[in-house]
Predict the structure of TetR/AcrR family transcriptional regulator.
Amino acid sequence: MRDLRRATLDATARLLAEQGAGGLSVRKIAAAAECSTISVYHYFEHKQGLLDAVHAEGHRRLREAQSAQQHTADPEADVRNTCLVYREVALSYPDYFRVMFGHPIPGFHRPTGQYRTPARENYASFVQVVRRWGEQVSLVTDAKTAAYGLWSTGHGMVMLELTGNAPREGREKRYTVTIDALMHGLIADA
C-alpha cells in the first residue's frame, strides 16, 4: 500500500522547491501526490503544518543516514563518513534540502519547537562523534568548533552544488578532498 503521508511530503517539498509559496496549494499538492485533498487534510491540519512536517522529515532522513555512520570503533572514520553521507542525502533529497536550508518562504514561519528537534539532534549527534574523535587525537580546537567547521563547510559545498553554483567537474572528489583536508588540519600534531 502506498504511503500517502510520505507522498504528500515529497510532493510538498518538490512544489516548494520548484515554485515557492505559490506552489503550496492543497489542490496542487494533492494532484502532485496523486491523492485527494481530503487525504492532505487528514495528515496535515494546515499549510504551515505541511511545511513543518517537510522540515522534520528531511532532518529525520538525514539523521537516519548519518547515525548509521557514527557508531564504529573508529571515530575518525565516523566523522569522515558522517560528512560524506551528508552530501549523499542532500543529493538524494534535494527538494527537502532546499526547503530545510533555503530562504524563508513568504507567508510562513520557520519551523519551531518540536519540528526543530530533529535538526538539533542531528547536529548534537555530530558534535558527539567529533568529541569521540577528539578523545582519540589532539584537536587544535574544541569539539564544538571543529564540528561547526566541518558541518558548515560540507553544507556550504552541498548548497552550492544543489543551486548549480559549484564547478561541474569532480564535485564528489572536491567535496571529499575538502573534508579530508579540513579534518587533517584539525589534528594538532598533523
